[in-house]
């Protein structure tokens, strides 16, 4: 891809640059391309996964945005593998729904939520690199789709009952291995390579090409970005090392189950560390320790010792 400037990774941009109202056009272009409808961001709401400390380097990057329709859009960028990631997607939408409705408000004040997940690991099994999940109420006998009543359609500006429920998008970036044909492909290519061609057609990408240049960062931001890059590389190396060690252990023991045991041990260790990271984040935001224990499966004593 010729003449492409050096651009910051999307996850780092989401932590820093895309939160500025002047750069909403980049985020709006991405969401418009993905969701297939014009999106206008009104504001970025508080999020919990944007710590910059070294010990949080494995944490996800998340943003919670509200669009002009009052809908909530969760954007998560996850670099490390998590076995229970689908469950966390569900938890994230439930948490957003519960936190952004006032006590005593009628149920029609529940926000529509979109969960957009950009993952750099093998999540599930499938041949595609972009998946869309949504709720459909289908008749068991007639196979018809449950529609809203006329009054409901006028009030909620939707047709099907399932459209009121959260929708999920999973972008498996590493599985994209083709030339960019569609505007969405152009966005996926940027997410994977960090490069944007000057002839792109997707909304928001030209603005990203002009505003996310590494050379335009001030000295402090450039150093912070380089540290972030190093953390991502370290994380990737750590995961690859665990995989290699698991394979070598299986070979040295000379047993067919050696590899499986080594990988299982690595996964178990990774899952435990993921639970501890989630517990730390929840503890930092003031979530009750009993709730953290229930959500993560960690003991109350272990959670209290986390710093």
Provide a concise account of the structure shown.
With 307 residues, the chain is α/β, with parallel strands linked by helices. The chain has 10 helices and 6 strands, in the order ααβββαββαβαααααα.
What does this structure look like?
- By secondary structure, the chain is of the alpha/beta class.
- Residues about 50-60 have low confidence and may be disordered.
- A hairpin with a 4-residue loop joins β2 and β3 (about 70-80).
- It has a six-stranded mixed sheet with strand order 1-2-3-4-6-5, sandwiched between helices.
- About 45% of the residues lie in helices and about 10% in strands.
- The chain is built from ten helices and six strands.
- The chain has two domains: about 10-215, no CATH class; about 220-305, no CATH class.
Provide a count of the helices.
Answer: 10
What strand line-up does the widest sheet have?
Answer: 1-2-3-4-6-5
User: What number is the mean pLDDT?
Assistant: 84
Strand content: 5-15%
Portion of residues in helices? 40-55%
Oligomer state of the chains in this structure: single chain
Number of DSSP-assigned strands: 6
The outline comes out as globular
InterPro entries: RpnA
Protein name: Rpn family recombination-promoting nuclease/putative transposase
Pfam family, one: PDDEXK_2
